[in-house]
Amino acid sequence: MKLPSPKTILLAALASTGVLGFESVEDAARIARTLVQSESIGTLSTTFPEGHALAGESLGLIEYYAPCHNNGSLAVLFFGISLNGKNILASSNHSATFSLQAPPSRSAATKPRLAMMGTFEIFGDKYPQGDELRRCYLKSHPDAWWTPGSHGEGVHGATWARFDPQTIYFVGGFGGAHYIGYIPIDLYRRAVPREAEPDSFERLRIESDK
């Protein structure tokens, strides 16, 4: 029997200390997966490596992604020439953070948001399901004419990559009503997102309160 890693045990303990309103951590996992499924643009953050003039400083810029993986990982077009791309390549495990937030209505502070800390798997031209991935990606970003295979080689060295979350921190809204804390990665991967609709997050919360 395989024992859980110390990191898994620690994150499970952290999840148990989350702030609970009427949302449980299970509700938060489902909302997180729904948010990932319904959005297609987030903020990608990286850290400048040692030896750089800005070593240790962070960089965050918007980034396209597509929810093409059943376990909640993100399909990303990776540009090694970008600053974020260079920082990722300089990291020993290709680490980065993806942050997402639900579209604001009256108050952005009441909407769910999350930060996913994880690693990139960069495929180059060896991704075995490139055509299928391209079709999925273009559903989220029909303007992305620069995808690999669209014009021979990827524009500006664009290549397919997958962002795999390892640690997830979730803020459901105000702490008195919504869950705030870590979501265990296994729970996130198992959670089933619902179809994205304008009131998805409100209805999820109403159902959680029953």
UniProtKB/TrEMBL annotation:
<dbReference type="InterPro" id="IPR012349">
    <property type="entry name" value="Split_barrel_FMN-bd"/>
</dbReference>
<dbReference type="Pfam" id="PF13883">
    <property type="entry name" value="CREG_beta-barrel"/>
</dbReference>
<keyword id="KW-0732">Signal</keyword>
<feature type="signal peptide">
    <location>
        <begin position="1"/>
        <end position="21"/>
    </location>
</feature>
<dbReference type="InterPro" id="IPR055343">
    <property type="entry name" value="CREG_beta-barrel"/>
</dbReference>
<protein>
    <recommendedName>
        <fullName>CREG-like beta-barrel domain-containing protein</fullName>
    </recommendedName>
</protein>
<feature type="domain" description="CREG-like beta-barrel">
    <location>
        <begin position="24"/>
        <end position="188"/>
    </location>
</feature>
